[in-house]
From TrEMBL:
Pfam family, one: Pre-PUA
SUPFAM superfamilies: PUA domain-like
Compartment annotation: Cytoplasm
Protein family according to the UniProt entry: Belongs to the TMA20 family.
NCBIfam families to which the protein is assigned, alphabetical: unchar_dom_2 (TIGR00451)
Gene3D superfamilies: 3.10.400.20
Known role: Involved in translation.
Protein name listed in UniProt: Translation machinery-associated protein 20
Keywords: Cytoplasm
Protein species of origin: Phyllosticta citribraziliensis
PROSITE patterns named in the record: PUA
InterPro entries recorded: MCT-1/Tma20 (IPR016437), Pre-PUA (IPR041366), PUA (IPR002478), PUA-like_sf (IPR015947), Uncharacterised_CHP00451 (IPR004521)
Domain PUA: 91-180
Length: 189
């Protein structure tokens, strides 16, 4: 979705306070672990900005900080900078070392990168990945990389974690926001 080196943001508009309250409520519903931090992420007295991006993507930002993006009526997906600030608040999985270069070049996340020895899915015995239980198709997940400190990808799952474990092949996550993509490099100044 954001494979281009740079994305030129379109019109920047202020979000109405009623819409901003709706976004806060939607974030609290989708990401319940973020609720204690909502006043820091989207302060009630601050004004959110809406930027229109190519391919019908909306980006919500606070000043120069991107927060969430949304493709049409899909769920709100956190920007990686937000994920790096609050890593404990999101559903997670981990890819092995071999899949890192493919993910960072914009390829779809494939099931073998998650089911191999270095990959982690819910039910693996690791409390970090088991905390949210099984993942379903359509869930927004953060993808960690084996041996790395920060998440490298965030996106919406195409298939559930149980199906990934059973089949061990195919696409697990199609289009997401990854380190170094156009959304990551975009400057909101």
């Amino acid at each position: 979705m954001f494979k281009k080196d740079s994305i030129a943001p379109g019109a920047k508009t202020k979000v109405k306070s009623s819409v901003q309250r709706g976004i806060r409520a939607k974030v609290a519903e989708q990401y319940p672990l973020l609720e204690p931090y909502l006043d820091q992420i989207i302060p009630k007295k601050e004004q959110l900005d809406l930027l229109k991006l190519p391919d019908r993507v909306s980006l919500y930002a606070l000043g120069h900080d991107p927060l969430f993006y949304q493709h049409m009526d899909d769920p709100l997906i956190p920007h990686l900078t937000l994920v790096h600030k609050y890593p404990q608040c999101f559903k997670r999985m981990r890819i092995d070392r071999g899949a890192i270069r493919f993910v960072l070049s914009g390829a779809s996340l494939m099931a073998p990168g998650l089911t191999s020895a270095g990959g982690r899915l819910p039910g693996c015995g690791d409390p970090l990945y088991d905390a949210h239980g099984e993942l379903n198709a359509g869930d927004v997940v953060v993808v960690d990389a084996e041996g790395k400190e920060h998440a490298c990808l965030v996106g919406q799952l195409k298939v559930g974690s149980q199906e990934i474990k059973d089949k061990k092949k195919g696409v697990a996550l199609d289009a997401g926001h990854y380190l170094g993509d156009g959304l990551w490099r975009m400057r909101l100044e």
